[in-house]
Design a protein that fits this description.
Order of helices and strands: EHEHEHEHEHEHEHHHEEEEEEHHHE
Helix content: 25-40%
CATH architecture of the largest domain: 2-Layer Sandwich
CATH topology of the largest domain: Dihydrodipicolinate Reductase, domain 2
Structural class: alpha/beta
Strand order of the largest sheet: 13-12-11-7-10-9-8-14
Length: 346
Amino acid sequence: MEKIGFGIVGLGSISKTHAFALQNQSDCYLVGGYHRDPGKADRWADDHNCRAYYSLEEMLSDPEIKAVSITTPSGYHLDPALAAIRAGKHVLIEKPMEITEERIAQLIKEAEAHHVRLGGVFQSRFQDAPLLLKKAIDEGRFGTITLADAQFKWFRTQEYYDSGAWRGTWAVDGGGVLMNQGIHAIDLLLFLVGDPVEVSGFTATLAHDRIEVEDAAAAALRFKNGALGIIEGTTGSYPGSLKRLEICGSKGQAVLEEDSITKWEFAEERPEDADIRTRFSGSTSPGGASDPKAISTIGHIRAFADFARSVINETKPSISGEEALRAVHLIRCIYESAKTGTAVKY
């Protein structure tokens, strides 16, 4: 069976998770990593027992590399992704795929024109607890969904923002707690409940200095299915709490906290429900609530496996460019609402 050789572009902290995920695969593997600093490229390659590339052109000209994962800062995704697509490489991009709808649309168009696969990394979609919740929703176990909420009350120090000139900027970070930290919870909310039709939002910068973007945000949503929802997020809540999603309906209620289920109650009990409550009662990951590096790796492992299968089978990955666009579009709608003081159509 064909195995897909991957190169990683951008060797910051999340690249280590991508490398680990690639080193635990059957259908793909890590070939090497590129960084514009040769010394950093060498050290990273030594750490991960792989090849170092000193230019993007060098990596893209290597015939062993069939796909590229992009882990540069968010606003720097477009250029290397376009270069890879135009070189005929399949491209998997860490969240957010890019920081505007227009840039993501350009990536989708180019990938289609060059007949390569384009995927985004939203690893929470591949975890067992959210998948169980999605299955229950699809089976109608909640009855009429009335409320759907997402909360990410996290903590980041001032030193975190000061550690990189791009952090906390509109031009490269693309936003604050919504675009950088909360986008996983927002994507899960869309995955579970569907798209909204209308959004009203507020943002503020309250707990940090020297950043352009929000570190606190709240939004109210009306979904296409009629449900109402709330999004709440901050990086100014010490010591940080687990990402939390709650789904309420006329026949059931469930609460997801990172990779655990803390409430699972339905009007029509099934034999498997007691086992679900027991198996998913304790979280195994802090989920990056206070440390962005403290995330589970299982979601990334499954995300790479899914993308590799899409390349081998010539099908769309589960999180295509169009899927990756949804959360960015919702976040941008919240920003527009906060700026104008009016509700925004999704």
